[in-house]
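Support reply, case 0932

Customer input (verbatim):
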Amino acid sequence: MNTQTELTHDQKRDFYNDGFIVLRNIVSRDLTRAAKRRIHVMIGREGSLRRHYKDLSVAPELPALVNETDLGDLLRNTMGEFDAPVKAMPTALHPFDASETITSYGVPGSEIPNFGFVPHLDGQWAGRIPRNQNEVDNWNSPRTEHFGTGDANNRGGNNTPLFQDPACKLSIGSFTAFVGVALNDQTEFGRGNLAVLRGAHHAVEDFFRMQRDSGKVVGPEGEGWPRLRPIGESGVTMNHLPQAIRDQFSEGLETTPDGTTWLKPTPILLDEGDAVITLHAIPHCGTSNRLGHEPRMNVYFRLRRHRPGGATVLGDSDHPDRGWNGEFLDYPDGYNPWEVAIEKLCDHWSEWDGMKEFVAEQVSQ
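Our regenerated output:
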């Protein structure tokens, strides 16, 4: 068992440079097996995790992976005080053969390189969109019937609001850390691994600063980030990542026959009991489980360092300044959660107390 509760200097360097850190064997097998059993019990009810997701997200075996382990202490020493999670985001990716069915990206799933790596940033609206380019009324700020009211009252199929704030100036959720605990073997790329765009957090932070300084929307529909983009000859897809960021990570690009380019990932190779900590600002994606012989099982947590006056963060939501179902929350007089969220998106290391000295050294060099 890894009893580590502080990052080493080398780990801090890697975390700063890469935007993620892997911690080996930090969660005991007793706890991972208990969590895995609970997931299997839920799936076994009707053969679907999704149908019982709400019940499973609050199962005590899942928050225990953070709350009853050295992982929780390490997070607290690295990030600072945060709400102990009471909910989690369990995932089970079953093995599946590459499909010739056309995906929402305009090409067959079998053609998307790197086991379907299409990186995104958490906290974006996701839902039904136009399927044909002729249907799109506006690529930057589409307002077809797919987007309902087109304001902060519209929620996607993922429950995330189209805009976080009533003034529609922030279109992305804000938290500090995306943390995953592996419940089984994912030491080979192709077993449904989480994969990241290594080092892109610096570019993401710079991009948010540019958007903020423009005085317009921060997130999709803001400067340089159309909500939709064309793909293939006539298809439409969500624009999960701005082109300006994609352009900075062109090494290893692959191109499908329709001319679409696909970014090269860094797969996160985990074994049971390992954990990964990433910044909110690191583009990431869960890839396809094409080589595994059992479901890939991870439990994820979205955690946030305490923001005085801010909402209690339960551990699973990518829009914690709003309720899970998009409801507006009450805040103390004088506290503006949207202004604070934008400030943190533009200075993500400000929410990592245990990294401050190291970050200051890097910035001064």
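We compared this against your earlier run and they match. Two observations from our side: The radius of gyration is 20 Å. The first strand starts at residue 20 and ends at 23. Please reopen the case if you see a mismatch on your end.
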